[in-house]
Write a structure and sequence with these properties.
It holds the Pfam family DUF6257. With about 55 residues, this protein is mainly α. It has 2 helices and no strands.
Length: about 55
């Protein structure tokens, strides 16, 4: 897996909030669906990678 791109403060907060929501859902049981929250985290990271590639050009 590639190194994570540098995140802004807002992106860090979004990832932290989504991670907390995933933890809360996982307390309900091991068969709880978390893919929607994981997709949102992936989207934030993808946007950070795009921003990093744009600034390094």
């Amino acid at each position: 897996m590639a190194a994570e791109p540098p995140l802004t403060a807002a992106e860090k907060a979004k990832v932290a909030l989504l991670t907390a929501r995933m933890c809360k859902r996982s307390l309900a049981g091991e068969h709880v669906h978390l893919a929607d929250l994981q997709r949102k985290v992936d989207r934030v990271l993808d946007d950070a990678r795009k921003r990093q590639a744009k600034t390094t050009k």
